[in-house]
Every structure is written in C-alpha cells, then in structure tokens.
Amino acid sequence: MFSKILVANRGEIAVRIIRACREMGVETVAVYSEADRHALHVLLADESCCIGGPEAASSYLNQKQIIAAALLHGAQAIHPGYGFLSENADFARLCRKNGLVFIGPEPENMERLSDKAALKELMREAGLPVIPGSKAVKTPQEAKKEAAKLGYPVMLKACAGGGGRGIRLIHAEAETEDAYFAATSEAVSAFGDGSVYLEKYVFPARHVELQILADEAGHVVCLGERDCSVQRRNQKLLEETPSPAVGEAQRSKLIAAAAHAVKKIGYVGAGTLEFLLDSRGNFWFMEMNIRLQVEHAVTEMLTGIDLVKWQIRVAAFR
Prior knowledge:
By secondary structure, this protein is an alpha/beta fold. Helices cover 37% and strands 24% of the residues. The radius of gyration is 20 Å and the shape is globular.
C-alpha cells in the first residue's frame, strides 16, 4: 500500500479522497492555487503545496508543477479525482515517467477509450449492443450524409465530450449545418477538440449507468446501476439506485455483458458504463467514463463500498 498520496484536485472531491486516505492510514499532500490557500482540502491534508496562481491553467492543470510537488513531498502516487487531469493520458504518462502511480487507467487505455466514437466500435466488438452511429464527421456535408443513413432524428455529439457539452439534437436535414457548427464550437471551447460524431436518437428512453471496478488480474465487479433519467440540458439532476425501470433478469443480463466487455478491453480501475434503456426493454451502450464520477456516492450509500479506497487498492497492487 502507498504511504503517501498527492491529491491533484480541489474542493469536495479532494476532501473526499483525503478522508479515504486518512481512514486507510495513508498520508496526503494537498496542492492548491493561490486563491485556495485556506481551502478545506488544504487544511485537512497532512502536507500542502502551492502550485500556482488562481487560474486553473497555472495551478490545477499545471502538470509539471503537480509532478514537482509530488516528488518534493515524497508521494508515491497521484489521485486526480474527477475533472482537471483525471482523463488526461499525457499526465498519466508523465506520472509513470517520474516513477509515480497515476490512480486511474493506464495512459494507453485512456487514449483508446477517450474518443467516444472509437469506443463505441470497441464495445461493439466486445459484444455490447451499441446505439447505431457514425465515426467522426469532419464537415456539415458529411454529417448530413451520415444522418441520412441513420434516419432523423439524430444526436450530434462531441467525441471528447462530457457534462452535456457539445451535444445537439437534430430533427431534420435543414437543422444539420447550424447544429454542426454550434456543437463543434462548444466542443473546442470545453475540451479543446472539435471533432463530433452522430448517433441515432433513442426516445423515449431511460438513462442507466453501471458502476464497475476492475483490476489487472481480470476481475471485474459490478456495483449495480444508477438511473439518471431526470436531466436538464443533458445534465443529470437526480440519481437513483437501483433503477425502478430495471428488472432482476435485465440487471443480471446487463451486468454479465458489461463485465465481459470491460474484461475484454483490459480496463483497470473504477469506471461507469452508460446505457439507454428503450421502451422495448433493450439496452444500448452510449459511452464509458474512465474516472470516478460526481455521483459515485449514490452507489456507495447503497452498497457500503468505498470506491475511492478501492481505486487506491487496485492502483497499489498493479
């Protein structure tokens, strides 16, 4: 087990990780911007280090400063929480280069899974039912061509998306060009990547996500599902577990399929597979989050299993 972990985040998730480490007997190092000098996560950690100015770009996204802080304080691993550098393969690779364990997927796996359009193809090959869709489309004309194949209405989505950003619903061809430019512009602003893809719009549907934990030995544990169908502007408002729309037979089938797929792609760590459940009772894979999610505590309350502690344990015994 690690003796000291640097927490590369701030706010609630940093406090959450520090709490888990303390209960495990692991010392923590908090990093903070000049604006967060007196923040709660800084006060709770065993040690702390200022890594830059108040802007995230000069502090919580400053990879070299975070690595330097970890080495200076003798940390063996870095927990990125969610947001910031949690899905950054370059940062995970930089950790490894400096002899630090990144508590999350290996950088090679992160790169494979970060493109949502490519991930859908990977999951299709792994045996999951996937919403019909396209690869990345590079022009409005290409988007129109792919949409015609799928049949309207369609969803236009950012390949590097998350948090409901870079998404547009298109009902007819006349809307495609405006939607394309709006989605790509928002994707560039939010993720630094304007690539988008199309998928068939499934409606009515429930949004159901499956929480998994996997280790390098090929063991995959599923901790049930969360229903996040209540949304506004593609942002989740309510999480419920177990889902009132999922029966026992459906649940067993979904867990078996998801576990098989996760094992086949060689994923390690905590992750969430997101599905749409249509009116006929069919599940369709949408995307996978390769990090801890904000709503992880909902699953923890139901199962009594601390996901942060298990992230740390899995990373320690690689």
